[in-house]
Amino acid sequence: MKLRTLTLGLLSASALAFAAHAESITIATVNNGDMVRMQKLTEDFTKANPDIQLNWVTLEENVLRERVTTDIATKGGQYDVMTIGTYEVPIWAKQSWLLPLDKLGDDYDAKDIIPAIAGGLSVDGKLYAAPFYGESSFVMYRKDLMDKAGLKMPDAPTWDFIKQAADKMTDRANGVNGVCLRGKAGWGENMAFLTAMSNSFGARWFDENWKPQFDQPEWKNTLQFYVDLMKADGPEGASSNGFNENLALFQQGKCGMWIDATVAASFVSDPKNSTVADKVGYALAPDNGLGKRGNWLWAWSLAIPAGTQKADAAEKFVSWATSKHYADLVASKEGWANAPPGTRSSLYANAEYQKAAPFAKMTLDSINAADPTHPTVKPVPYVGVQFVAIPEFQGLGTTVGQLFSAALAGQSSVDDALKQAQDAATAAMTEGGYIK
Amino acid sequence: MARAVTTQHKTIATVAAWIVALLIFFPILYTIITSFKSEQEAIQGFNLIPSGTFESYTEVQAQSGYFKFFFNSVLLSVGSTILALLVAIPAAWSMAFSPTKRTKDILMWMLSTKMMPAVAVLFPIYLIFRNFGLLDSRVGLMVMLMLINLPIVVWMLYTYFREIPGEILEAARMDGASLWNEIVYVLTPMAVPGIASTMLLNIILAWNEAFWTIRLTTTDAAPLTAFISSFSSPQGLFWAKLSAASTLAIAPILIMGWFSQKQLVRGLTFGAVK
């Protein structure tokens, strides 16, 4: 009896001691498929690290961005790990708001991270966020409609070819639009697409002295081409369409082509949700022969705010979630097609992954075709392919996005939209002290 | 003839009321319908007949425990309402029975705070919460929700109290009732219907408040608004799951509203014809 009491007492004491010692970290993330999958698989991490508990906060992308920005700027300390994008990382790292990730472990193999992705998440050669999944953009097209139009999609099409194919595939009587592109206003919506597209037309947001460039012919060519293409071959109400709206249209067979995030490939090729799953082909984003393609580069990444009190536990988690071991874990539980894409070179060298994901090669080629440090044909003072990595860009990008969305909706002319964009950008740059 | 016209007017008014009610309720109805569809069905255009699958509900519950958020919603809405009443009853009493020259101005000023966009004070409030250690705390959020809804609660109670004859309170005073007894044993019982409808409305407002409840919480104090927000996805069509999450979040308050509609309508229209 005494022995039993003593054993129970010891067990209770050790349980209490363990509970007191267990550290809980709070992770802020978005509700994307890959992130949700990670939450389901965390038992693997907590088994190996029983002294660390994980708390998840999942939020809508814009709310998440606002929440983590408020928290990090005020040193609120609400989160130990934050899911942020390629836009935030260089800005926040320069503000010393993020901790450098230099203790990811011996077997982490940081060199395996795709160089273009690692470049976008590093400042002065130091990695400030580990990529959870990465993406570029490419052309997804209907092979059957392309055959019907008597055309063959090249691996690296030009914008002229896209226009020609869109004209031929458009069949409004049967509800088929030749091309579906983003039109919804926002720096991460239509401006992600249009900024990447403008790179291939030789345009740039600012010259080397931060002077806005919307009054230059390259921007006029970009916007005019986009508006004309969408008016002739785009869906009705395109100025309200973002990623999800175009995804729905494509999955229902209402788009001949869709140029958007490479991560969409797993959705459109999923027979459970897509009516055209077996008819989809992939090609690089178009160019104009100027040396830059119209594709972007983005990575949802895990970063550790400088204000956290639990840096070691947080870094352990980041290391686990972005490791090769995690990709293997996903493959073993849910198949290779569900492994988080666009972060590690080793995944694309894996024959099983190539077999499970027919879009794998084109995704990697697209990512490699983007260079965030030299995004444009002419030189620029900023980094970022589909954004300009300065704090002012979120507000300015959305303002310009609204002007361009209005031009697409026919509420203003291309010339008016560009003139207003030039004025808005000049005002923002002057106020920010970039130009006098 | 007059009766015929009255009947005709009544019919037109009834039909118009039904049309307006259906228009208002339709988005909620369609959300409920969509929650019983598969994801593929949900994106395939307008369709009022779902396949009747419970798949989304199962996944929503598996993905993030509903009951933790539900418990927080109940605690925050009821707690903030009780706090609001504790502050508002004495405030409305003094304004209704001992008005000064500035009472109307004070009431207007209180109401004007509701006109300020919440985002304008996000940073100061966030910093105050951080400095007092109130981020992600139920107590902090209860106080915040109480403050947000206080102007409306004071206004509503003030309107009710004004309807109570001051002579009754005077009589109580003549009988030797203290201030406390006057409020608790005379005024409050007479104003029970008004207090009840104010309480119901405040619970609904607190339950639906999304700006602060999402921004000042992380895990421990997060209510159902944060639960819904977690199902909105920028990349991926999860409309059925989002609809299931929304249905689960609005169901309790919808049911409560249905059962208490008489009190609510009475409360909201009280004094409207005067």
Features:
heterodimer; A: alpha/beta; D-Maltodextrin-Binding Protein, domain 2; 2 domains; 10 strands; 45% helix; B: 274 residues; MetI-like fold; globular; membrane (chain B); Sorbitol/mannitol transport system permease protein (chain B)
Q: Would you mind describing this structure in some detail?
A:
The complex is a heterodimer of chains A (436) and B (274). Chain A has 436 residues and is an alpha/beta fold. Chain A has 19 helices and ten strands. Chain A folds into two domains: 194 residues, D-Maltodextrin-Binding Protein, domain 2, CATH 3.40.190.10; 221 residues, D-Maltodextrin-Binding Protein, domain 2, CATH 3.40.190.10. In chain A, strands 1, 2, 3, 6, 7, 8, 9 and 10 form an eight-stranded mixed beta sheet that branches. In chain A, strands 4-5 form a two-stranded antiparallel ribbon. In chain A, helix 18 runs antiparallel to helix 19. Chain A is globular and about 80 Å long. About 1% of the residues of chain A have low confidence. Chain B is mainly α. Chain B has a domain of 165 residues: Orthogonal Bundle (MetI-like fold). Helices cover 75% and strands 0% of the residues of chain B. Chain B has 14 helices and no strands. Classes of the chains: A alpha/beta (436), B mainly alpha (274). The interface between A and B is medium-sized, with 38 and 30 residues. Chain B: This is Sorbitol/mannitol transport system permease protein. Chain B: Keywords: Cell membrane, Membrane, Transmembrane, Transmembrane helix, Transport. Chain B: Pfam families: BPD_transp_1.
